[in-house]
Amino acid sequence: MKHSYQMDTIKVPSALQTQKKIQEFFETFSSKRIQICPVKNILHSLGDKWSIMVMLHLGKHQVLRFNELKNNVSGISQKMLTVTLRTLESHGLIARTIYPQIPPKVEYAITEMGQEFLQHLVVMLNWACVNMDAISRMKKRKMREDLKNIV
Length: 151
Prior knowledge:
Elements: H1 15-31, H2 37-46, H3 49-61, E1 63-65, H4 66-72, H5 78-90, E2 94-99, E3 105-110, H6 112-150
Antiparallel strand pairs: 1-3, 2-3
Helix pairs in contact: 3-6
Protein backbone atom coordinates (compact mmCIF):
# COMPACT_ATOMS: atom_id res chain seq x y z
CA MET A 1 0.00 0.00 0.00
CA LYS A 2 1.32 3.44 -0.92
CA HIS A 3 1.56 6.24 1.55
CA SER A 4 -0.19 9.47 0.63
CA TYR A 5 3.11 11.23 -0.08
CA GLN A 6 4.27 8.64 -2.63
CA MET A 7 3.52 9.25 -6.28
CA ASP A 8 3.31 6.74 -9.09
CA THR A 9 6.56 6.49 -10.97
CA ILE A 10 6.40 8.39 -14.22
CA LYS A 11 8.68 6.89 -16.81
CA VAL A 12 10.72 9.40 -18.74
CA PRO A 13 11.53 8.11 -22.22
CA SER A 14 15.13 7.55 -23.25
CA ALA A 15 16.80 9.88 -25.76
CA LEU A 16 16.22 7.33 -28.52
CA GLN A 17 12.54 6.92 -27.58
CA THR A 18 12.16 10.69 -27.47
CA GLN A 19 13.71 11.08 -30.93
CA LYS A 20 11.39 8.38 -32.28
CA LYS A 21 8.31 10.09 -30.78
CA ILE A 22 9.31 13.44 -32.29
CA GLN A 23 9.82 11.80 -35.68
CA GLU A 24 6.41 10.07 -35.45
CA PHE A 25 4.80 13.36 -34.46
CA PHE A 26 6.06 15.18 -37.54
CA GLU A 27 5.37 12.25 -39.86
CA THR A 28 1.78 12.04 -38.63
CA PHE A 29 1.15 15.72 -39.16
CA SER A 30 2.89 15.98 -42.53
CA SER A 31 1.22 12.85 -43.91
CA LYS A 32 -2.22 14.17 -43.05
CA ARG A 33 -1.34 17.70 -44.11
CA ILE A 34 -2.52 18.96 -40.75
CA GLN A 35 -0.95 22.09 -39.40
CA ILE A 36 0.85 21.92 -36.06
CA CYS A 37 -0.86 25.18 -35.04
CA PRO A 38 -3.52 23.59 -32.79
CA VAL A 39 -0.86 21.77 -30.79
CA LYS A 40 1.21 24.93 -30.57
CA ASN A 41 -1.81 26.90 -29.37
CA ILE A 42 -2.64 24.35 -26.66
CA LEU A 43 0.96 24.24 -25.42
CA HIS A 44 1.10 28.03 -25.45
CA SER A 45 -2.04 28.38 -23.35
CA LEU A 46 -1.10 25.62 -20.87
CA GLY A 47 2.61 26.33 -20.59
CA ASP A 48 2.47 29.85 -19.19
CA LYS A 49 3.57 30.49 -15.61
CA TRP A 50 0.09 31.22 -14.26
CA SER A 51 -1.47 28.04 -15.65
CA ILE A 52 1.36 26.01 -14.18
CA MET A 53 1.07 27.65 -10.76
CA VAL A 54 -2.74 27.29 -10.67
CA MET A 55 -2.49 23.61 -11.62
CA LEU A 56 0.16 22.98 -8.96
CA HIS A 57 -1.89 24.65 -6.22
CA LEU A 58 -5.02 22.78 -7.24
CA GLY A 59 -2.95 19.59 -7.30
CA LYS A 60 -1.80 20.29 -3.76
CA HIS A 61 -5.16 21.34 -2.28
CA GLN A 62 -7.56 19.38 -4.58
CA VAL A 63 -10.34 22.00 -4.32
CA LEU A 64 -9.96 25.76 -3.97
CA ARG A 65 -12.20 28.78 -4.21
CA PHE A 66 -11.22 31.82 -6.30
CA ASN A 67 -9.85 33.91 -3.41
CA GLU A 68 -7.98 30.92 -2.00
CA LEU A 69 -6.28 30.49 -5.38
CA LYS A 70 -5.54 34.21 -5.59
CA ASN A 71 -3.94 34.12 -2.13
CA ASN A 72 -1.91 30.98 -2.95
CA VAL A 73 -0.63 32.05 -6.39
CA SER A 74 1.73 34.85 -5.48
CA GLY A 75 1.65 37.88 -7.78
CA ILE A 76 -1.33 36.96 -9.94
CA SER A 77 -3.93 39.65 -10.56
CA GLN A 78 -7.65 39.01 -10.29
CA LYS A 79 -8.06 39.48 -14.04
CA MET A 80 -5.19 37.13 -14.90
CA LEU A 81 -6.51 34.47 -12.54
CA THR A 82 -9.95 34.74 -14.15
CA VAL A 83 -8.45 34.38 -17.66
CA THR A 84 -6.25 31.46 -16.54
CA LEU A 85 -9.13 29.61 -14.88
CA ARG A 86 -11.33 30.05 -17.95
CA THR A 87 -8.57 28.75 -20.22
CA LEU A 88 -7.87 25.71 -18.03
CA GLU A 89 -11.59 25.00 -17.81
CA SER A 90 -12.06 25.33 -21.59
CA HIS A 91 -9.29 22.75 -22.12
CA GLY A 92 -10.95 20.39 -19.66
CA LEU A 93 -8.15 20.46 -17.07
CA ILE A 94 -10.20 21.94 -14.26
CA ALA A 95 -13.86 21.85 -13.32
CA ARG A 96 -15.78 24.78 -11.93
CA THR A 97 -18.60 24.00 -9.52
CA ILE A 98 -21.14 26.69 -8.67
CA TYR A 99 -23.25 26.24 -5.55
CA PRO A 100 -26.63 28.01 -5.70
CA GLN A 101 -26.50 29.95 -2.49
CA ILE A 102 -26.19 33.55 -1.41
CA PRO A 103 -23.47 34.67 -1.74
CA PRO A 104 -22.65 32.28 -4.60
CA LYS A 105 -19.94 29.75 -3.84
CA VAL A 106 -17.63 28.63 -6.67
CA GLU A 107 -14.98 25.93 -6.33
CA TYR A 108 -12.30 24.77 -8.73
CA ALA A 109 -10.89 21.25 -8.91
CA ILE A 110 -8.66 19.28 -11.25
CA THR A 111 -10.37 16.91 -13.68
CA GLU A 112 -9.12 13.46 -14.63
CA MET A 113 -7.42 14.90 -17.71
CA GLY A 114 -5.96 17.63 -15.49
CA GLN A 115 -4.48 14.96 -13.22
CA GLU A 116 -2.81 13.38 -16.23
CA PHE A 117 -1.43 16.77 -17.31
CA LEU A 118 -0.20 17.36 -13.74
CA GLN A 119 1.77 14.10 -13.80
CA HIS A 120 3.69 15.30 -16.84
CA LEU A 121 4.10 18.75 -15.33
CA VAL A 122 5.70 17.24 -12.22
CA VAL A 123 8.29 15.50 -14.41
CA MET A 124 9.17 18.84 -16.04
CA LEU A 125 9.36 20.57 -12.66
CA ASN A 126 11.62 17.87 -11.32
CA TRP A 127 13.91 18.33 -14.34
CA ALA A 128 13.95 22.10 -13.72
CA CYS A 129 14.84 21.63 -10.04
CA VAL A 130 17.61 19.14 -10.82
CA ASN A 131 19.12 21.42 -13.49
CA MET A 132 18.45 24.81 -11.88
CA ASP A 133 22.04 25.39 -10.72
CA ALA A 134 23.58 24.37 -14.05
CA ILE A 135 21.19 26.63 -15.96
CA SER A 136 21.95 29.51 -13.62
CA ARG A 137 25.72 29.04 -14.13
CA MET A 138 25.24 28.95 -17.92
CA LYS A 139 23.22 32.18 -17.85
CA LYS A 140 25.88 33.94 -15.74
CA ARG A 141 28.65 32.73 -18.05
CA LYS A 142 26.69 33.94 -21.11
CA MET A 143 26.15 37.34 -19.48
CA ARG A 144 29.88 37.67 -18.77
CA GLU A 145 30.70 36.77 -22.37
CA ASP A 146 28.16 39.30 -23.65
CA LEU A 147 29.70 42.01 -21.42
CA LYS A 148 33.19 41.21 -22.70
CA ASN A 149 31.96 41.55 -26.29
CA ILE A 150 30.46 44.96 -25.54
CA VAL A 151 33.62 46.35 -23.95
